[in-house]
Amino acid sequence: MTRFTLKTLVAASALAASGAALADITIGVIAPMTGAASGLGIPAGNQAKLWPKTIAGEKLNVIVMDDATDPNQGVTHAKRFVTNDKVDVIMGSVATPVAAAVAQVAEEAATPQIAWSPVAVPAGKDKWLFRLPQSNAVMGHAIIEHMKKQGIKSVGFLGYSDAYGETWLNDFKPQAEKAGIKFGPVERFARADTSVTGQALKLVQANPEAILVVASGSGAAMPQMALAERGYKGKIYQTHAAATRDLMRVGGKAVEGGFVVSGPAVLAEQLPDSHPSKAEAIKFVQQYEKAYGPGSRNQFAGHAYDSIIVMEKAVPIALKKAKPGTPEFRAALRDAFEQIGKTTLAHGVLNWTPTDHWGYTDDTGVMMKVTGGEFKVEK
Questions:
Q1: 215, CA 20 to 30 Å: which among 197, 261, 262, 309?
Q2: Residue ranges of the chain that CATH labels 3.40.50.2300
């Protein structure tokens, strides 16, 4: 990944020196290739290597930077993108705290950002921010509906103490209470923590009928393993940040029978033929697994795949108003994202509007069950 980044940077610098870059489209990618969220960032970066060479006839330049799952690193890279590279759009990060920090830079620089995490920002602060992952509220809806079918009456919470965990808590608690499901206890832990024994004990003692674990990638396995080790027998749910094979690789038998909500992309073959995203999801899986091997598909690689579908619809609209590499093009691209209408992605049907930069409906989430070390769609 470092070699890919350096080559891309050298190419971008050479084009800029020649003056040719003004007519090229430049995407700045910020993703964790190292650190706690690298299990999500590496697949997204891998998908970026499969992006086309051109969009709407314009050459595509891609600069990939490792945020190391650190918001400060993300800000440093974002400032470099908008100041030195004059990127037309920033993509990333898959880590919510990093994406939130980058969003402030993008807003100030009037540069569009397509986040690969469900990042929430204060009201009125997402003019330049668009998200490709489903919102926590949309995924929470899928979890609540499944819990209702299971007859669950109480749910505990064990999640990250950062922006991802807090937004899930703020979105999910009112949904659960509205559905008549008792909510609590609430226990938190840091991404870098290597144990949640104390938190698990408190939840096991309270013994809610279900527990929602809010964590990501391989880090999502540790809390579920701790609950199993402490003898918890209720149902365990995980969010879409856990929809990677790292959950089973690290968690093994401890995660068997657990439920994970996801976008459609990772379940391509299991989707009914009537599902609007089935064809695009299969294209994503075939492309990714041809390059990286059977079973390598990943929720976040799917978001990187969908990014190009969005760009291929928006760029021709923006090109009618301005040339890439200019403030006018960045503004036109931002406006175009709101004008592309319903767009079928590998992860669902998206429709960004001037008042909605999330764009998915409540029926987007797909519930999976870990069965025999594999994700299986819940019928």
A1: 309
A2: 2-134+284-350, 136-262
Give percent above pLDDT 90 in the chain: 88
Q: What is the pTM of this model?
A: 0.87
Scan for tokens 């590998």, then name that residue.
Answer: 346
DSSP string, 288-345: HHHHH-TT---HHHHHHHHHHHHHHHHHHHHHTT--TTSHHHHHHHHHHHTTS-SEEE
Q: What is the CA radius of gyration of the chain?
A: 20
* CATH for the stretch 136-262: 3.40.50.2300
At 262 the three-state DSSP class reads strand
Options 3.80.10.10, 3.40.50.720, 3.40.50.2300, 1.10.760.10; CATH for 2-134+284-350 is 3.40.50.2300
Query: What's the one-letter identity of residue 230?
Result: R
Query: At 253, which amino acid appears?
Result: K
pLDDT tens per residue across span 228-263 = 999 999 999 999 999 988 999 999 999 999 999 999
**Helix ranges restricted to H, the chain:** 2-18, 38-48, 71-80, 96-109, 136-150, 163-178, 197-206, 221-229, 246-251, 278-292, 299-319, 327-337
Q: State the CB neighbour count (10 A cutoff) for residue 295.
A: 10
